[in-house]
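= Protein in question =
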Amino acid sequence: MIILISSKIDETDIQAALGKPEYSYFFLMKDFMPALQRVGTVMLVKSVAEIESLHARYHAEGQAVVFLSFSPPHQVPVGLACPTVSVFAWEFDSLPSMAWDNDPRNDWRYVFSHTHGAITTSKETALLVNNAMQGSLPVIPLPAPIWDRYASVGSREGWPVDLGERQFPFAGIVIDSPVLGLSADGLVCKPEAEAEQCVPQEPLPETLPAPGLSYYRALRITASLLRGWLRDLGLSAPADTPVVAVSGVVYTTVLNPADGRKNWVDLITAFCWAFKNTEDATLIVKMTHHDLEFYRTVLMTLLSRLAPFRCRVLVLHGFLEDEQYKALIRASSYYVNSSSCEGLCLPLMEFLASGKPAIAPDHTAMADYLNDKLAFVLKYSLEPTCWPHDPTGMLYTHRHRLNWQSLMEAFRSSYQLAHDNPSQYQDMSRHACRQMHDFASVEQVSKPLEAFLHKVLANAAGSSGSLKP
């Protein structure tokens, strides 16, 4: 079987595309690759012309050819001679059913009626597609098979609690709350006359004024900023990568600050309130956005309003290579998700597959793999919302409003567990790893994937007898 695949964003521009619409489909396609390679010969394509040309060539040789479009349905090319399957993530309880902007593809039923199958990343969405098409379209829910890539990070026996110092390499920009001199007073504009009196009459000191900031720590921060600046300019940074040190109970989240569904402001406020007087609690926020200025002012204002607090908030801006990302996982105690809806949440799955317990709600796609044996499950309630790409903004669907109190309490409960009940922590870690093996390993995904693609090809051809598998 020849499997053609495409995504709007590819390997060459993923760093510059972080935070832009549909950037996550690149990672979804990349994670599906091992399962696809077990099923057939995989080829990356970039245009409709290339798809049709390869289909005509291999079909003439008697080969079975199928095209998988890793993109939202309204971006899937329709009417191709090559059997086409939409592979997409969706996080709402209804599907777009109106053709706005004079594009019939915005009504997803039109796309499904002009393609040959759909692979969704959650059971909820597969049911929506099946109902919308009245069972006429082959559809299957399959998670990205990430377990094999991350299983080696942890252990089948689970992680023991580690409260000592850990390190991970990072060459981007680091915003570290203890060295910022945070204060809400800095948010107040002083009268002009008073401001003039504050203008320094002597040269500024060469050393940084932040209290408690050692010389070597200042150097590490400066080097991190420099490397991020060089990366943005497309220049090479020095070979050695600086490290970030953390200790105590470490919570990590990976999110796009442009996506309001991630509730990252609530996540930070709940953390800082839960650990206002706790020094050995750290929250690492890995931002997946190409532009620091997009969120920097909001972040700094938020942290200043929350100050003073003794816990540590560490914000990372920049690209993490695979091994650096795995080192971040090893240094973490828990993964945190506070989203109002999720199409899959690859970072949460990756941390769980590595044996790291979580704090998260069990709605939308997360309901397929999350439970209280591996996570502190958050509370939420249903509220109206709009489809994210609908220009009308009409409230045709729903999302799940986070219960902020339950998030703050989950922070405190998980911290206490790590300190007072290390055996239960290890049990949660062990269960996370085993659950993700059963849910999202290459073996578990490739078998139903192969059967599904054969079904698609059989339906498209009317008969599979003349095609080579």
In short: Residues 442-461 form the longest helix (20 residues). The CA atoms of residues 304 and 426 lie 36 Å apart.
